[in-house]
Amino acid sequence: MKIITDSSCDLPQELLKEHGILVVPLGIEIDGNDYIDCIDLSHHDFYKKMAASNNIPKTSQPSPQRFIDAFKEGLQKYGEVLSIHLSSKLSGTYSTAMMAKDMVNEKIEVFDSLSGSLGLGLQVLKASQLAKEGFSVEKIMEKLKEYREEMKVIVYLETLENAVKGGRVTKTKEIVANLLNLKPIVHVEEGYVRILKTVRGKKKAMRTMLDMMEEKNISFKDRIIGITHCDCLEEALKLKEEIIEKFNPAEVMVTTMGPVIGSHSGLGGLLVCF
């Protein structure tokens, strides 16, 4: 079975290669210039360009043909495909993959992660591990649904700048938030991004994220915790240390948040999924 995903998964390239996961890239447009995620625009270059722009970057879902080509490649080598994608509530990527599935009309299943970044990436890894263990595609999708329901995805926003650029927040609200040092924390719920709470200061925001993990009241010893960051590696590593000290999980994976989610989170954003 071939596992396919899209570039919003934010899994490191070496891990994708190790597991043989095929990635269908999304598109990004910054100030009239078009790029293909992870092909002609690295995460580092994306953040440099975003910081220099007065406009919020725009992302676009892959074309049906990109999915058709990926599906045919997977079918040719493995005879069966499981394609796992960015939340259908946040992008048309899942719908386009479904359209391509119907056009190819072979042994293809498409799964809606109802998440993004490593919230999607960890589901993709889970599917890959289960496939290697010999589970059927039906059983993998059943287990992914359980994993998806259990997963919590929280995002800390350092700034409201991109929300202002995108027209979701007024400049006045941004000024007030900056004056009061208010830091929004959002989460992914039923595939949508919703504001969870607003706290004063970064330190309190980090404590809040750790408290939310503790409220889960589970053992993390056999779990992978994912952290993605918007060009703020030092903060991500600091959070990783605190998570290891407090919860002793099986692994804490730290990667850069890509353009698809990063364009909305803005510089300094942090995502934790568990």
Describe the structure concisely for a colleague.
This protein has 274 residues and is α/β, with parallel strands linked by helices.
Structure, explained:
It comes from Clostridium aceticum. Pfam families: DegV. This protein is an alpha/beta fold. It has helices at residues 13-19, 43-52, 64-78, 93-104, 118-132, 137-150, 161-165, 171-180, 202-215, 233-247, 259-265, and strands at 2-6, 22-24, 27-30, 33-36, 58-60, 81-85, 108-112, 153-156, 182-189, 192-200, 224-229, 251-256, 270-273. The chain folds into 2 domains: 2-26 and 61-149, Rossmann fold, CATH 3.40.50.10170; 153-273, Hypothetical Protein Tm841, Chain: A,domain 3 (2-Layer Sandwich), CATH 3.30.1180. It has a 6-stranded mixed β-sheet with strand order 10-9-8-13-11-12, sandwiched between helices. Mean pLDDT is 91; it is low at 171-180.
